[in-house]
């Protein structure tokens, strides 16, 4: 039984993306300052699996203004292959999409695939507001670290 616990513990530590919590600053697509903060990640329902991994993102700001006071609990997007009957995940990003009266808003946290002794670091963030009723109000903001 002790061996099973060790294997499960080892698996859960390997599965977690180990995104380093903290405040991150970068540049947007216009070369202006942008920022966001990552909180401590966890597994939904305490089930250590990449599809259950959550990372809180808050304090998203562009050009010195905080866009959103919400905490986004981003997750790896699922990858479905209906033909082959497979359910996998995109390991290189985390995302959350929220429906709105005008369309949808999404946050995509991009992950650096290189892992250091401190874990994975984000490589950037994309904030999308899709106004399907009036496309001129839509926006896509990119923060690159």
Care to count the β-strands?
A: 12
Share of residues in strands: over 45%
The chain-level mean pLDDT equals: 87
Q: In sequence order, what are the helices and strands, one letter per element?
A: HEEEEEEEEEEEE
Share of helix, binned? under 10%
Q: Key features?
A:
mainly beta; ten-stranded antiparallel sheet; two-stranded antiparallel ribbon; globular
Describe this structure in words.
This protein is mostly beta strands and 145 residues long. 10% of the residues lie in helices and 57% in strands. The protein has one helix at 2-15; strands spanning 22-28, 33-38, 42-43, 53-62, 65-68, 72-75, 78-81, 86-89, 93-100, 103-116, 119-131, 139-144. Strands 1, 2, 3, 4, 5, 6, 9, 10, 11 and 12 form a ten-stranded antiparallel beta sheet that branches. It has a two-stranded antiparallel sheet with strand order 7-8. A hairpin with a 2-residue loop joins strand 10 (103-116) and strand 11.
